[in-house]
Design a protein that fits this description.
9-stranded mixed sheet; Rossmann fold; Arc Repressor Mutant, subunit A; 5-stranded mixed sheet; about 10% strand; 3 domains; about 750 residues; alpha/beta
Length: about 750
Amino acid sequence: MIAILILLLTVALATYSPADPGFSISMHVDQVENWLGRTGAWISDALIYMFGVSSWWLVVTGVFSLLSLALGSRRSDKVREQERGLSWIVSIIGFVCLMFGSCCLERFLELGVYGLLPAGPGGVVGHFFSRPIVHTIGVYPAMAVFLVMVILGASLLFRFSWMDICERIGTAIDTVLHWGSIRRAEAEDRRIGEQVRQEKSSETLPVKHEVSIEKAPAAATPEAEHEDVAGDADESSAAEAPKRPATRPSAPIPLRTDLPAGPRFPLSVLDPPDPEVDTVDEDSLALTCRLIESKLKSFGIDAAVVAARPGPVITQFEIQPGEGVKGSRIADVCDDLGRALGVGNLRIVMSLPGTTSMGLEMPSANRQTVRISEILASEEFTNSKSKLSLALGKDIAGNPYVVDLAKMPHLLVAGTTGSGKSVGINAMILSILYRSTPDEVRFVMIDPKMVEFSPYEGIPNLLCPVVTDMSKAVNALQWLTREMNRRYSLMRRVGVKRFEAFNEKVKEAEEQGRPISVPSASNPDEMEELKPWPYIVVVVDELADLILVGSRREVEVLITSLAQKARAAGIHLILATQRPSTDVVTPLIKANIPAHIAFQVVTRYDSQVIMGEPGAENLIGNGDMLFRVPGMSSMVRLQGCYVSDHDVDSAVAELKKYGSPEYVDDVMEKVEPEAGPTQNGGESDALYDKAVEIVLSTKRPTISSVQRHLSIGYNRAANLIEAMEKAGIVSAPDSSGKRTILTPVGPD
């Protein structure tokens, strides 16, 4: 009915004609131009005569009221009558201010849309009220007053905030400008990477006709080879880890929503790539190929060098054994061959992927330093959209090598002093910090040496201060386990199985204006809105100190639990050690951390422990590494990125410009088990009688009340309330979660 009246009023005003009879003029005409006939002519003439063109605000107000009623009838939370009445009063005041200001302002603007209006612009209202105000304060002050009345009336009537509109417009402008700056920065990074790529000749060196010098094929990306294997890592034997005692729930991680996206620091603050270096020359490469064949023949082995692939640090020779020659014979004379060639650190690859040949890797005459800035500017890193992309370095062919930590999903790193392990860890950290804001990725850094991670102290991405006390490191692992369980509990409530799906569902709910709410972790009687979670990357610089200083069994159980289940909760581990022995890298830890990196190690036994096969003892150090993830047919040899102290300091200085970190206070706090033989929260609990007394005296049978009065954890307080329910003192919770006191009995 209301909609029909609004439609008729709109038609009457739209077809108004001064020639029609009406309130302001009396005449007899045979033909009425108004579509609603004489009734429409009289109604439109009366409105135009009283309010002028401002009469159209009646139509706008009617449409808005109709929409408000339609939408308001669908709301599940009905507004109280008192609040509804107050809302109508505010709307009436806003309508009066709007009409009054519009009529008076129309008088100055001389709006003659309908030709000659009956009472002039603004109608009788505008003419009657504007004249005395203009005579009193002047024309321009009066116009300002009327404009303010229109603005204020519109805000009250249509229930919006001009400040909010201005803020949204400003935010949109700022977003567009920032998007443009990000695009320019990415274009500059791509230009730098392309310039470096063009400067570095990728052509191989031609030698004699009997040996093919070719560019090695790019190493297979680990994402394609191990995605399915890593995808099942968190679904493996999670039940094998011993259950932890019940502890108090973890508090949600505070997020920084005021930080822009895009690169977090410009590549210009990092050291630029070094000039091109010829690692080998044509003559020496051809001579080496002939020497290898000659020395193998002197050992009674018939083999031919069919290809050579020079890289930034290592040159790989492809060897084709003769008919009936076993590959193990070539491997057995590897040390003798190195001595005969005058080259140390030879490494034999028993089978090159996709060929029937073996590989012989030896150091190049000249080393080429791989800078972190070069890898971050590469096309491979730019095309990797993951927030956990790691710039590891270059493969033997000189191609940038980038992997995704989220797909590994955890990484075990080993290497002796001087092997480049700490530099490699810094490269991984800077790779993540380069494109991730604190609300996307947070770090927990455990540094037993107290110097390796100290430069990162104070960056916004830290979840807690850098942990240097190993007892607090154990507390941090316990907190991470609680946080993992908390995330799984919330994912189960929301109805998703993975970290990424949870964030997408929460963001979608926020965009639709219906945020998801769950009981608060600290006070279940209160509701809190869910926010997207950040990834949590745990970096341990020395696993040996963490295991040997703390409780070995407890640390092993915590790491195993995180390695088995934390991936789907967005928690990832990077564990490093100088001692890859079985008392540090235990079989349980190794089995649950599928991705491994080995820098140079001391013995063949250490390589066997960390990589499952020998070879890492023959690396040449200074960033030379072997990398493997499940599903890869063989290990990949890489030259790691070099990260100088200047790179770290410059990047950290840029990151600190975004503000200070927002730490979670209880990450490093020790949390004792809340239930024991005499404090399990039942009737045998020493605090049971006291809890009953509190419930009867306060008449509040809630878990939060017992928890607050007794200063105990949530689990224990919940058990006490459940014990009272079984004893018939309090009722079971109703549909709204409330309980009532059934029998006013004493604690006895």
